[in-house]
Amino acid sequence: MRLLELGYELPNNWREATISNVTSKVGSGATPRGGSSVYTNNGIPLVRSQNVLDNSFSNAGLAFLSDQSASSLKNVELRANDVLLNITGDSILRCCLLPDVMIGGRVNQHVAIIRASDAVIPLYLQKWLVQDWFKDFMLSHSAGATRKAITKGQILSFPIALPPLPEQRRIAGVLGALDDKIESNLRVRNLCRDLGGNLVADTVRSAPSTQLEHYAASISRGVTPQYYKDEDASPVLVLNQKCIRDGWVTPELARLMIPRAREKSQAIARLDDLLVNSTGQGTLGRVARWDSDDPIYVDSHVTVVKADPRRIYPVLMPYLVFPLQDEIEHMATGSTGQTELSPSRLAQLNVPLLSLEEQRPLSARLVALEAQAHYCQVQSLKLTELRDALLPELMSGRMRVDEAGCLVSEALDEEVRSV
User: Fold this and answer.
1) Could you give the 3-state DSSP secondary structure of residue 296?
2) Nearest Cα to 78, choosing from 95, 59, 97?
3) DSSP-derived pairing of the beta strands 236-239 and 296-298
4) Is the per-residue pLDDT at 115 higher than 80?
5) CA of 309: how far to CAs of 235, 250, 265, 350, in Å?
6) pLDDT at 37
7) Hey, what long-range contacts does 376-381 have (CB within 8 A, 24 or more apart)?
């Protein structure tokens, strides 16, 4: 289908092509023989759909293969500047540029490698594919009644608008500068959490143990939400299991629900509350700290643990539980696929016992680290909003690159001044 048929007007001096015209390779991998049983703790990385996010790569859950297992996937060996596109499932069409540390890895059958030729700048290609309107177009080609999927042939046929290479490079440079700063903020944020974890580990190394309920003012499941469907009522956000991963909460994945007639305060997350995924295989046991001053509801698949300040500094409680996610998962009961962790079972989790006197200096340092981590996240959200606003303007030629560059420079300078 031509771009004009999609409502896209080609700017002057730009030309239209297809993905097949600007790539040297498009293809997906496979699951190695033996499936997950051949995964190792280190070796050659195997990129799966969960690792591919829009505009960024996640190491969470990264699998590794031995040299022998990886040899069967030699034809999908990753190279510098490969574009990765999820082609099946709920995460279909998430797209990012391969980070250099993944060069030499492999992809499974749910991820496509799109390798740019000399006709296109790889980051420009990635930004073209990640546009909302273009994702809607690609998704309209997906097949499968129960599982979305797009094929290699479809990808090759998709159109792309190409400015001259120097302008592609400038567009990619402006948007890439924002990507780089967002990624830098993420590294600092994770570093703050790691430093805090190390401080806690050093402090509790020889501490006796107690049960989680010793520190808790309440341990309660969230609410069963009535999701918002364009009713007259003003909706409120409610967190779910997808929002909780790697110790952090992603509010952007929260859903909207109709406000409750009667407030359930124990189901509302407030600053420093511990959140624990409590149902379902694969997500049960994930924990996070709510790091915002703004309260938010959680749904019934998540348990909220509120600290008793007479026994523990609230910021410390999540840190005591962060290393125990495997133990939490094993505390669950029920059959495969229907596992569940009750609040009463979670209350019995063994955690280190520290006096308030021992906690005081540690907690002060944790508060400072968490404040820095929260600042990085807030700044990243602002930069993400700017990048997402500039993307359609630059990729359509409606905004001059120089104008966008000035906006990006101002945003990055403002972040430096506010540190």
Assistant:
1) strand
2) 97
3) parallel
4) yes
5) 32, 26, 17, 19
6) 80
7) 376/185, 376/186, 376/188, 376/189, 376/192, 377/185, 377/189, 377/291, 379/185, 379/415, 379/418, 380/181, 380/182, 380/185, 380/186, 380/189
Whole-angstrom distance, CA of residue 74 vs CA of residue 69: 10
What residues contact residue 358 under an 8 Å CB cut-off, 6+ apart?
203, 207
- What is the C-alpha to C-alpha distance for residues 262 and 312, in angstroms, rounded to an integer? 29
User: Across residues 94-100, what is the average pLDDT?
Assistant: 97
CB 255 within 8 A of CB 227: yes
Distance CA 51, CA 46 (A): 9
Q: Is it the case that residue 129 has pLDDT exceeding 70?
A: yes
pLDDT surpasses 80 at 322: yes
CB 143 within 8 A of CB 110: no
Residues forming a β-bridge with 289: 274
- Which tokens in the block code for residue 352? 């280190």
CA distances 407 to 54, 175, 383, Å, are 22, 11, 11
Beta strands 95-97 and 268-269, pairing class: unpaired
Average of per-residue pLDDT across 352-379 = 97
Q: Is-contact 77 52, C-beta < 8 A?
A: no
- The answer to whether the CB of 275 falls within 8 A of the CB of 289 is yes
Assess contact for 265 and 246: CB atoms under 8 A: no
Residue with tokens 């969960």: 50
Give CA torsion, residues 246, 250, 255, 257, to 10 deg.
100
Q: How many other C-beta atoms lie within 10 A of the C-beta of residue 398?
A: 10
Least confident piece of the model among 72-81, 140-149, 249-258, 352-361: 140-149
- Give 369's pLDDT tier (boundaries 50, 70, 90): very high
Residue 43 DSSP label:
S
pLDDT tens for 28-87 read: 988 777 777 889 889 999 999 999 999 999 988 899 999 988 988 888 999 999 999 999
| Euclidean distance between CA atoms 228 and 246, whole angstroms | 28
Contact between 49 and 130 (Cβ < 8 Å): no
